[in-house]
Structure formats: C-alpha cells, structure tokens
Amino acid sequence: MNATDTIQGLHCVAEVKMSYRRDTGIEQKEVRTSKDVYDMAMSIYDKDVLDYCEQCYVLLLNQAGKVNGYRKVAEGGMTSASVDIRQIMQAALLTNSCGIAMIHNHPSGALVPSRQDDNITRVLQQACQFFDMNLIDHVIVTSEAYYSYADHGRL
Questions:
Q1: pLDDT of 21 higher than 60
Q2: Element (H, E) at 67
Q3: Do 105 and 141 contact (CB within 8 A), yes or no?
C-alpha cells in the first residue's frame, strides 16, 4: 500500500441510495387532510400487524401535496418503536420532498398521544422547518380510528 492508496481510502464514504421512480406501485394521491393520511395509512399497514406491534411510516410529499412514496422508519413492540429523525429527513431529502406526514399505530387501540409522541413530533417539526419542508401532520392510527396532531391544533 502506498501513500496514494491511503489518501484515496480517506475519500471513500459509504453511500445511501434511494430509487426514484414515478411507478411506485401506489397511486399518487393528494394528501391534504388527516383523513387522507389515515386512508393512506390503512392502505400501507398490514392489518395482521396493526394491533400487534408499533410501526412508524413517513409519507413523502411533493410540492403539490401528492405522495411520492412512503418509508417505514421504525418497528418496535407493543408499547413503543424507536424513531430516528435522521432516517426520516434522509428519506425526505433523497426524494426531494417538500412535505411529510408521519404515521404510527398504537396497538393498544388508545388514541391519546404519549409524551414520546409529543416529543418526536416537536423534534420532527423543528427538523422540517430547518430544511424548509412542511410537516403536514402526525397521525396516530388504530384499527378503529385515528388521532391527528394537525386537527387538534398541535402543529
């Protein structure tokens, strides 16, 4: 190994890639309301898992509010899932998203946001503001109903 090999090795950085195709297999629906987010969530979630373990998804929206795609950003147990804001923002940036909507389920069926739900919403909203994106909603879903931070004036 010579000095050139060492220097070149310093410039190698692991790369994250995301495919960007219009044909994602989902209809490019416009998302404007919490009901739109909920309907999209019900088309994404595996109904056999909805009441079993907590999962978190992010909808990636273009300037017109249409869904470019979605990404699962966390999966946990019955009571929690560890959400990493960096993964959400990475997906949003790599897809040139102008807005996002966060969705997660409560297997217990409770629609009351937890303190952790409130904290992640606040931090995600700050991250979106930093990157000039809109957090249009954070929706908690159950097999029966949903809770919207936007509808409750909490965004």
A1: no
A2: strand 67-75
A3: yes
> What is the spatial distance between Cα 48 and Cα 149, in angstroms, rounded to a whole number?
25
Torsion of CA 88, 90, 93, 94, to 10 degrees: -120
If phi > 0 it is left, if psi is from -120 to 50 it is alpha, else beta; for residue 57 that is: beta
Q: Tell me if the pTM is above 0.90.
A: no
CA atoms of 15 and 19, how far apart (whole Å): 13
22 pLDDT tier (thresholds 50, 70, 90): low
Q: Where are the alpha helices (DSSP H) in the chain?
A: 3-10, 34-44, 85-94, 115-130
Q: Which residues of 124-146 are buried (b: 16+ CB within 10 A; e: fewer)?
A: bbebbeeeebbbbbbbbbbeeeb
Please state at what angle helix 115-130 crosses helix 85-94, rounded to 10 degrees. Answer: 40
In the predicted structure, residue 132 carries a pLDDT above the cut 70: yes
Among 147, 120, 150, 122, residue whose Cα is nearest residue 136: 150
Q: CA 51, CA 109: separation in Å to the nearest integer? A: 7
Q: How many CB atoms lie within 10 A of CB 85?
A: 14
**65, exposed or middle or buried, with CB in 10 Å at 0-12, 13-18, 19+?**
middle
